[in-house]
Amino acid sequence: MDRRSKGILKNVEWKLIIAWLFLVLVGWISIYAAVYDSEHSNIFDFSCRYGKQMIWIATSLVIALFVMIIDPKFFSQTSYLTYVICIGMLVLVLGVATATKGAKSWLGIGEFGIQPSEFAKLATALALAKFLSAINIDMKEWGTKLTAIGIITLPMLLVLLQNDTGSALVFLSFIFVLFREGLSSIVLIFGATAIVLFILALVVNPYILIGILLVLTLFSYFIVHSHNRKVKFIYFLGIFAFCSIVVAGVQFGYNEILEEHQKVRIGVLLGQIEDPKGVGYNVDQSKIAIGSGGFIGKGFLQGTQTKFNFVPEQDTDFIFCTIGEEWGFIGSTLIMFVFIWLCVKIIKMAERQRSNFARIYGYGIASVIFFHVMVNIGMTIGLLPVIGIPLPFLSYGGSSLWAFTLMLFIFIRQDASRSDLV
Questions:
Q1: Looking at the predicted structure, is the pLDDT value of residue 272 above 70?
Q2: Phi and psi dihedrals of 173, rounded to 5?
Q3: Alpha carbon distance 181, 297 (integer Å)
Q4: Residue 247 to residues 83, 106, 197, 214: CA-CA distances in angstroms?
Q5: Are 117 and 90 in contact (CB under 8 A)?
Q6: Is pLDDT of 281 > 60?
Q7: 166-196: pLDDT as tens digits
Q8: d(CA 12, CA 151)
Q9: Which residues, other chains included, contact 311 with Cβ-Cβ below 8 Å and sequence gap of 6+?
Q10: Rounded to an integer, what distance in angstroms lies between the CA atom of residue 252 and that of residue 153?
Q11: pLDDT value at position 9?
């Protein structure tokens, strides 16, 4: 082993690798519990999902090893190529893929299939880091802002066209990367306002809501003092126009774009629709499973909700309820703590990078992981609508595990060589 290889091994952040191994192992155990059948309990039964997940885990180890032994500059140099390939795959999905559960998201060859949208998140993180780390890039310039937003928006729209709303929303997490790189906080304020208006537009009559906004705008206009009345008028007119466009846009999107089942999910979440045997069934059963786990849980393979398949998709999108039922409050809290620690650790490591590319990329993957965890657990416990995104490293599926493994280990490789990268 040469001196350079020894240096890389010495600088590797092993805590991240241990956290990855821990989450992957917990995920496999939970998948085994979710689909366990006493008549087919062999852990090497590759016809079952836990057997297939073992294959995904083994191949993920190979991927992680491969990433760690190649030149870290390779990822920066091929960022745009990776992005273009993933965009091409997303376009290909629209043309040749068959719909599965209402979404055209998979490219399949025989029994093997991959979900390009999972890898598109990685590609977007790489391309965004490559663009923003270029010399003379300034987030205050409109050209920079529009290009960065375009890099994020293009794959997001293609995934949205696949009718995979959950995966499309994940791309919004990259806005945090733009803020770290100097995007004005005014955008954050407008974004928060848009979210509040989005919710209000779904529960309040749009005409009444716009009327209330008009009264509030006029009230603010008359109590705010300004020497330049023309500028003040244009400012408040712009605010009112922005709010009105958001409300009208929400109404149009809700009535003309969303599918009926998506409307029902939103209605159930907002308490406008009672649907305990339909769309609300998954969430109700998930909350029952997690609540029944109590403080210490029922124990491995002892969960009744899990054992009798009360919760659909319990080994994929609702894997967290398996953990909650069998390992209780303690186990659930531990998993959430590991995820929070992982995101915070990645951000701290990102800040110590000498390479702008590595720093921006680190923020990108931390944002994606945090968004996935927040939304997945949120929908599992009934705080957020069910939009169908996996829990990183834990949910069943090769595409998700491969993509998140690549995301994490590319950053670990960048960090291990941070003294050599500028």
A1: no
A2: -65, -20
A3: 43
A4: 34, 34, 6, 13
A5: yes
A6: yes
A7: 888 899 899 889 988 888 777 777 777 777 8
A8: 30
A9: 282, 285, 286, 289, 305, 318, 321
A10: 20
A11: 66
**What are the pLDDT digits (tens) for 193-232?**
777 887 788 777 888 888 888 888 888 878 877 777 788 8
Helix (H, G, I), strand (E, B) or coil at 107: strand
CB 398, CB 114: distance < 8 Å: yes
Query: At CB < 8 A and 24+ separation, what contacts does 375-379 make?
Result: 375/166, 375/169, 375/170, 376/317, 376/320, 377/320, 377/336, 379/283, 379/317
Burial zone of 265 (CB within 10 Å; 0-12 exposed, 13-18 middle, 19+ buried): buried
Query: What is the rounded CA–CA span in Å between residue 372 and residue 375?
Result: 5
Neighbours of 85 (CB within 10 A): 15
CA-to-CA dists, residue 408 to 19, 92, 396, angstroms: 11, 27, 18
Give the position of tokens 């909700």: 305
Q: Would strands 107-109 and 112-114 be described as parallel, antiparallel, or unpaired?
A: antiparallel
Q: How far apart are CA 244 and CA 9, in angstroms?
A: 56
Q: Which residue has the tokens 């350079």?
A: 4
**Most confident option among 163-167, 245-249, 261-265, 412-416:** 412-416
